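Quick start: what a row looks like.
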Amino acid sequence: MFVFLMIVALVAPALAADINGNWKAAAEGPNGTIERTFTFKVEGTKVTGETNSQFTGKSAINDGKLEGETITFSIKANFQGNEATIKYEGKATASSFKLTSTFVGNSDFPSIEWTLTKAN
C-alpha cells in the first residue's frame, strides 16, 4: 500500500494540465464582451502569475492551485476605486479552459463565466 501511495504522489502532479504561459480570456458582461489576459506559472500544484484587463487593471494571482484539471486562485483588483477580491475556479486543459469568477463578499455582482484560449 505504501508503494502505491508513493507512486500516486509522484505521478499526480504530472497529470495536471500544462497551463504555463499566456492566455486570452473573454466573457459576456452586461455591456458586452469583457476581455482579460492571464499569465500562469505552475510549479507542482502551486499557480502564480498575473492577470490584466482594462476593467480592473493588472493583478497578481494569489493562492493559486492546480490539482489535476481543477484550478483555483484569487486576485485583488481595483474596482470603481475600491479594492475587491475576486475568486476564480474552473477546469483546465492544455489548449483551453473555462473559469468562473465571483466577487468575494459582494453578492451585488453576478458570477462571470470566462473562456480561455492559449495565446500564441
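That is the whole record. Residues 2-118 form a domain with the Lipocalin fold (CATH 2.40.128.120). The chain has one domain: 2-118.
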